[in-house]
Design brief:
The complex is a heterodimer of chains A (173) and B (185). In chain A, strand 4 and strand 5 form a beta hairpin. Chain A is built from two helices and six strands, in the order H-E-E-E-E-E-H-E. Chain A has 173 residues and is of the alpha+beta class. In chain B, strands 2-3-1-4 form a four-stranded antiparallel beta sheet. A four-stranded antiparallel beta sheet of chain B has the order 6-7-5-8, covered by helices on one side. Chain B folds into two domains: 78 residues, Alpha-Beta Plaits, CATH 3.30.70.260; 82 residues, Alpha-Beta Plaits (2-Layer Sandwich), CATH 3.30.70.260. Chain B is 29% helix and 41% strand. Chain B is an alpha+beta fold. The longest helix of chain B is centred in the C-terminal third of the chain and has 18 residues. In chain B, helix 4 runs antiparallel to helix 5. The chains are: A alpha+beta (173), B alpha+beta (185). At the A-B interface, strand 4 of A face strand 5, strand 6 and strand 7 of B.
Amino acid sequence: MDAWHRTVSVRSVLTLPHPTLLAVATAVGAVDDDARRLAEDLVDTMRASPACVGLAAPQIGVSRRAFVVDVTGHRKAVSCHGTFVLFDPVVEAAEDPVSAREGCMSVPDLTGDVARASKVTVSGLGVDGERRTLVVDAFEARAVLHEMDHLDGLVFLDRVVGTHAVFPRKTYR
Amino acid sequence: MERLWLSALGADRPGIVAAVSGVLVDLGCNLEDSTMTTLQGHFCVLLVVAAPEAVGAGDLEAALGEVARRFELVVVVRPLGPAGPGAAGGSPSGDGDEAWTIAVHGADRPGIVRDVTRALAEAGGNVVDLSTHLVGEPQSPVYVMTLWVTMPPGAVGEAAAARVREAAAALDVHCVVHRDEVDVL
């Protein structure tokens, strides 16, 4: 393999009730070759689904604290940092909750209304092993927090309030 | 005004709500609380109706006969009995009770609703609203249940939440129980 060719690795995405989705993921620690391969798998798998704007490692069967987000071109995005992978991410600040409907590749049949902070500061290790701190808002903040939940074994169903906040994903007549 | 409850169920078709509510208007009834939804392609209506003194449950059910035939609905109308004991509005929830949401999901198996709600009831909680969805592949169905409940305040509520979590764990289903945080802005 050279600089012009890279093997694309699209992993299958786990769906409920797979236990890996419900477990608290373990820290990555140092960004080594395994971590970089994980990052590539996350990016490739996310890009294989055009509507997917983020993916967490547990969703592809790896119970480690890592996720990828890319909200490029999304109509709800305000901040946009392109494609970024964070290892061992930590939410440093979160404010201004906003409720919106979201879906998840691991919960393919349902959507839900979830309140999440719309202004978030998140830090973690990038693929180069350097610490990154990102200030994200609007849809990018929602995507980050959604992926962060996966690292703690939570899906959006665990965040809804009330029973009228979960909806079948199929389109009604 | 007399309060009646009305239920209607039939295969989902456009125009059911308009037809049923049209009969209510013609009879001078007022549609108060309602739940209407589709369940696996069937439209389900459950209403509380305030009806003039001259319109009894039998009168309203008879008046809905043509709509029931046209849309192939099962329609039942009955007088609304006295509400349950407790707080204003007839809820068996106590005055100081707090609202919680319970999210349960996992591989479908018999007893999820029974065991979770039994634990809740035994711990002093009360179901206010409950919805379930059976999703996933036919060979590995996933049961998703969301409950909106009231629980006694303070430590009693926390203990009730713990009882519910234990019941879910015994069923090997995932369960998150959280107090509803209401921001009044």
